[in-house]
Amino acid sequence: HRYPPGPKGLPLVGNLFQVPLKKNWEQFDSWKKDYGKIRCSSYVHCNIPGPILYLNLAGQPIIVLNTKKVAVDLLERRATNYSSRPRFIVAGEYLNGGCNMILAGYGDIWRRMRRSSEYALGLKTSSQYQPTQSDEAVLLAYDLIHSTDQWENHIFRAVISSILSIVYDLPPLTSFEDPIIKFLLGLTRRLDEALYPGSFAVEFLPILDWLPPWLAKWKREAIKDYQNYTSKFEQMFSNVKDASVKGEAEQSSFCATLLKPGARHSLSDHELAWLAASLFMAGYETSSNTMTWFMYLMILFPEIQTKAQEQLDQVVGRSRPPTFADAKHLPYIWAIIKEMLRWRPPAPISVPHATVADDYYEGYFIPKNSIVIPNIWSINRDPEVYENRIEDFYPEHHLDSEGKLKDALDEGHFAFGFGHRSCVGRHVANNTLFVDVATILWAMKIEPVKDEHGKPIVPSIDEERSGGILLNPPKCQFTCTSRFEEVDMILQQARDDILKSTRYSQE
Ligand code: HEM
After folding, report:
1. 280 lines ligand 1 (CB under 6 A)
2. pLDDT tens for residues 214-261?
3. What is the pLDDT of residues 318-332, one digit of tens each?
4. Is 469's C-beta closer than 6 angstroms to any atom of ligand 1?
5. Domain limits at 182?
6. What distance in Å separates the CA atoms of residue 427 and residue 78, rounded to the nearest whole number?
7. I need a labelling partner for 292 at 20 to 30 A (CA). Which of 160, 265, 325, 360 fits?
8. In which residues is heme bound (predicted)?
């Protein structure tokens, strides 16, 4: 068999020690130059180095896709073979009981979950969640102005609260210390640890899975945690179900939508409860990561902030915060969002796919059970897609000469992944990012704090921090000041109305 090109490895371990645990997307990107052009039958790839790489991690074949063309050819055109996930024994099978949609293999349960969630999160249906998203944007803007030093917690709180309201019709969470936030963050941490390569021997020695729980601590603890998570998620789901049955649901939620006839695709209540929980796991870190990058980028590029605010003043004015009705008149806001997701995608190597059968591509052999990594970092810098200033943060990539969006329906980046497994929450994500970014820029001027000599402290981009699969911006602090006199009064009034109208204040 002739495998795609890639670095030569050592006997037995292959390339195991050549792939860094942090920022591995940069290593994959730099190998492009060395493990160059592929033999190809038809197209321009003949001139682009390293579109597809082969690595061997102690016997496990890894295929890295570095260009849009190869990712589309394999993950979209041959989706039936390339849409499974690698086996995650501890995280996927024991901690999540095989019911976490993100980690599930390409089987029956994933298919039914995907159909249900596409229905409840589609472009049209997701507009029913916009009132919740607008409310959360106002609460976030208010908090940022009133206690800016807590800015990261405010973003985390707002993102979590927004997802929980969308999924379960919960009222806004007003504190980052809320027990439900602690519970969900505990679960996310536990999952991150279990997914971290090398955490559990059973992942590379699956024979250990035969051990009974009393002999395997990892198994015992994972089963116990799964039972705890399940009872909490089932409880949250059944609260929505009861409220829907009694006609007490305040607004449309994801769970309530799935209870409509024809929407649940034969999923049991247990499976629906886990599907709803999967949304939190998929949406929380990705969305909050983008919002933390946003705050940093606004001090790194103050001219972009000013330009966006000029457009907001023209379109929205100063007597009310932006709404979704303004969305199509604010192309520059969208261009900033698209460019954030292109330049610093929250998940630079996406979620790995896996093949279900042997395959050939351009004469190269891709074995069954290969782990396939769409290297979004590289694909978002594909010279066949972006003409110039590829390494710069440049919102104009997405605008035509008149300042309009080049193609409103095209994402303009690949941060949401490819094919059958692409992000099912992307419309919700785009809406949250739009209304948060627009409301923050409408309300406040974001500036770096100053040192004792009055010099602004703007950390260099080189100080960005990588912790596993996410890339975080440098640590930084800001001042957020109201842009005009009426802001405080408008935000205060809107906040009072929101908190008054929710069940939270009535309890
Ligand atoms: C900026 C925000 C977000 C980004 C960049 C993002 C990105 C991604 C990526 C890269 C994948 C994997 C795609 C693949 O395997 O090819 C994914 C999957 C997924 N995302 Fe998102 N996501 C975001 C927000 C959200 C939100 C808010 C939700 C829920 C409301 C969500 C729900 C999901 C789910 C359920 C999956 C698994 C899909 C499957 O395996 O079939 N995501 N997302």
Report:
1. no
2. 999 999 999 999 999 999 999 999 999 998 888 776 668 999 999 988
3. 999 999 999 999 999
4. no
5. 97-346+381-506
6. 25
7. 325
8. 423
